[in-house]
Amino acid sequence: MKFLSSIAITLLLFTGCANLGLNTNKVKPKQELIEDANNGNTKAILALAKNYNFPKTKEGLYYFNKWYEELLNVKSSENLTEIAKIYEEYNDMFINGKEKTVKLYEKAIELNSKDASVELIKYYTKNYKYEKAKALQEKVIDELSEKQLADLYIFYNDKYKKEQLATIKEFMDKKGYKEPFEVAIKNLRRAAYQNKDSEVNSFINETIDTKDSKKIFLLADKLKRFYKYKESIRAYEAGLKIDNTNAQAYYKIAKMYKIGNYKQKLKADKDEAAKYLEKAALLKHKEAAAELLKYYSEKPELMDKFFAIKSKLEESNEGKLFVARYYDKKRYDQKANAIYNELAKDGNKEAILELATKKPSKYNFNPEEYKLTLKWQDYILKSDDIELKKELEKKLTSSYGYRDYFNETKEKLKDLPTNEKTDILELRKSALYNKYRKPEIAIEYYKKGVAAGDVKSAKNLARFYLSSKQQKYNEAIKVYEDLHKRGDLEATRLLAELYINPPYYLKDFKKEPEKGLAIYEDLASKGNIDSINRLVNLYLCGSCKDSESIVNYKKGFKYSKELLEKRGSARDYANIAWSYHYGKGVDIDLLKAKEYYEEAAKRGYASAYYNLAWLYYKNDDYKGQIIELNYEKAKEYLELGAKERNSACINLLGVFYKKGYAVKKDMEKAVALFKIIYRYDRYASFHLGEYYNEKKDYKEAVKYYKISDERGNAGASIELGVIYEKGLLGKKDVKTALKYYEKAFRNSEDETQKGIAAYNIGIIYQYGKGEIEKDLKKAKAYLEVSTYKKAKTQLKLIK
């Protein structure tokens, strides 16, 4: 392949150079598109999103909020799915953005859009609403096209959803559809990384034989990412034989030749790269043209080409920017700045920003350049162009490289007002950048986002006010209350939780649970299932720290029934059963409890089997009622739960084998059951600790007791204390023993264990055991609160 001559470069490359790489498609003026959208033209909404940054600006967000209700009344699904995808992408900007997204998809589905069904299935899956996704998929799968099925297949493959992927694959196989090409390429990665060259080349050949340039170029792109440069070049070349107008393909080949590939023994070859850069440049690829300028500057024999390309580039402002950047990279600062300055005087914003953001060197300070930078910063500060100011602010605040420079300019820029074109996402980024460095600036950016109508900025501002360093509780309340009045459900929930259980570190605050409950009850009265569910948890969970003072079993039972009627999940049946079982808000009725537990179990709530077992079994600590003592029946339920891998059932089944309930005593079987779940079940790990403790295998006992202790079992903490205090591992360690006793005393909800822990601590201080000094005052304090029977005897000795 020969190099193009300088004449060819001049004649071919830069005909119409001023338009190099620019989009020549005409776009309607923004105001016309807004008028069209206001008149129901959904295509105009998409055009505004594509070309005018809607809804990421204050103006765009305003109109997207305005158009939402109108979109719910359209008569055609045309463009509606694509618009819904925009609402999904920016859902956190809107009041109840997620709900809005779902309603738009549902509207499109109502208008017979199968694409909307696919997108809503994907949306449900991404948001962990698997049952809804499954139900919708089962409803529409027979009506989906090959393309729509392929779309779902690719989505599930990318999300590693094996079960859903298998379902779609089975359906596609029945229809005779092939695996989507995009997935086949992704699966090729393993073969590429494992250097299975024959498999890779076979796939390349099959793809080339399709004569589908789109697929071939896609494959070439992937091979390049897999660092299979030789194969990638072969694929690009094959694609270019079919479509020789793909400038990006030529450019990518050039990049591979330029850097080479050591593993593939592909030598870096700038000359070969230049040949492809020339072809890309002929197709008006601007990056290729810029790289050619650099390449031509490196060899004397290419000097004519260098001046030819430079001369033509200098005929347009865009070309001049390429030349200036070339000088920048070469560190010809004076020449670069001269061109930038010329362009800046003509109002070129890119050049103005280049000059205004020149970072001074610590080692080679240039006062003239620094003066030029300050000049253009001052120009921007005095201009009426808010967007230009925002760009300068973004560049100076989004990089740590500027943290020690231009602080005066940054200070002046921070008070910039937002306007109709301000990018809300950039405001968020600027707030995040300053969140820990300069909190006061971060707050200003959050407020600007709020002023632009961004709901996420408001929530971020409230969370920031609640941070341990800010502690502006009342300010956060104001933000949440404003969003609550506007109907945002998430903010309303956050407000309710703040009233019920504010962060522990907040100073000068007063819990107001009645306000939080009132909010939830108001939402519940309007049928909000999440609020009803939260009320059930708050009113029924007397042992939960955030609701122990507001527990109300009657209300809890009332809302449990509402939840059962509206949602009817397995957990809802279990809640009703629990209330009947223990008489929480309703009279005890064990037969009804059994009925509801069995329904919960049938619907997949495996813990219900554990509760059913306790209707036929009791131990010394159990204070509740049972239908009858029937170990065989209890064991049947436990075995059903164990099949579902329910840890509580497995643990209690282990106890049955340990004690010999409805079965012959079998410690080997019990230990095997405990070992299935010991890593995440504090009782199973405790039982194993006991087992090895009795066998005097203290090393193993400590291993399992520690696991149980880490999961909050105070009994395990006490046993560890005893082992260390007695030196059963070899050497007495009273200091460590004391730590475990103190942990048990702090954490135990069992008065007996708490009493034992207090007694053990008191004895250590009473006699000054090990390295702990004698302290009768502390000993007395612990022994006085201990319920352990020996504590009184020890107290008499102190007195």
**Helix fraction bin:** 55-70%
Tell me the structural class.
Answer: mainly alpha
Q: How many extended strands?
A: 0
Q: What would you give as the CATH superfamily of the domain at 680-799? A: Tetratricopeptide repeat domain
Q: How many distinct helices?
A: 45
Give average pLDDT, whole number: 91
**Radius of gyration, in angstroms, nearest whole number:** 36 Å
Could you give the distance between the termini? 105 Å
Give the percentage of residues in beta strands: under 5%
* Unreliable residue stretches: 10-24
Estimate the global geometry from the Cα principal axes: globular
Level-2 CATH architecture of the domain at 680-799:
Alpha Horseshoe
Largest sheet: none
Q: For the record, what CATH class of the domain at 680-799 applies? A: Mainly Alpha
CATH topology of the domain at 680-799, by name, is: Serine Threonine Protein Phosphatase 5, Tetratricopeptide repeat
